Amino acid sequence: MDVINKFKNGLKKTSAFISKNIIFSLKSGSLDSETLNEIETVLISADIGLEVTQHLIAKIKNKKIKNDFDNSKLLNFLSEEITGILSKNEKKLIEDSEKSLKVFIFIGVNGSGKTTSIGKIIKKIHNNKKILVAACDTFRAAATNQLKEWSDQLKADFFQGSINQDPASVAYGACEKAKSENYDYLIIDTAGRLTNNTNLVNQLIKIKSVVSKSMLNFDIRTLLVLDGTNGSNMIRQVETFNKSLEVSGMIITKLDGTAKGGALISIAKKFEIPIHFVGLGEKEDDLVEFNADIFSRSILEIESYK
Hints:
Number of strands: 8
Helix content: 40-55%
Strand content: 5-15%
Number of helices: 12
Structural class: alpha/beta
Oligomer: single chain
Radius of gyration: 21 Å
Shape: elongated
Largest sheet: 8 strands, mixed
């Protein structure tokens, strides 16, 4: 129940916007074309996106519930359809039973909450696991210091290079240390790259290439951290990063700060990339494993859960 409450409370802004406006659209008591147009406007305004919105409206029409519906029935129907879209993106990142070294390369633009998410992930992993954190943003001392604070606080080992050192060489050094000293996890932080800056993206590609060669026989995940308050702009970031770096999983932060959390649905519809965690608050425990059913019910303010 605690997880459910985290989703409900963290998605209040989105759910208040979507569910209340849909219910208001149903004031006529009929699912006529005018009402469906109003519902379509609500969904698009929540950044659910045109493609997904048209899909949902078509599903409502095909269901033929025009003369036999109430608010609850319609919201539950929409929730089931949204869950169907999201369920393919629901996948765990951390498995306690896994024993071989895993490598997480964190990428994302400045301000997405990448470094904070790393700290929260370390806390979720711990359970007596040996963790090495590598600071590969060598051009900003503040970024390295912030990451070191998280590592020290959570008793993870820390690896850093010198200021302005080639980030890929730092990543290589961390890989060799992780292998030789039998770490369970290597977490690599990178600079907050602007997706339209070719040189900076190329640097990320170089880091991943070096890590892939050094860690040839190990599980490497490239994790993209997205700021949920960016709404539909997140799609462009996923497109750019995925094209260059083959993103293997996503973490979507700050969903508690937006009324447009519906953009997550558009991302799930467009990309078959796992959404591992969502950020539903600022506390360490507010980074929560993504659950498609709980998410879809929360944004529509449905009280009953499977």
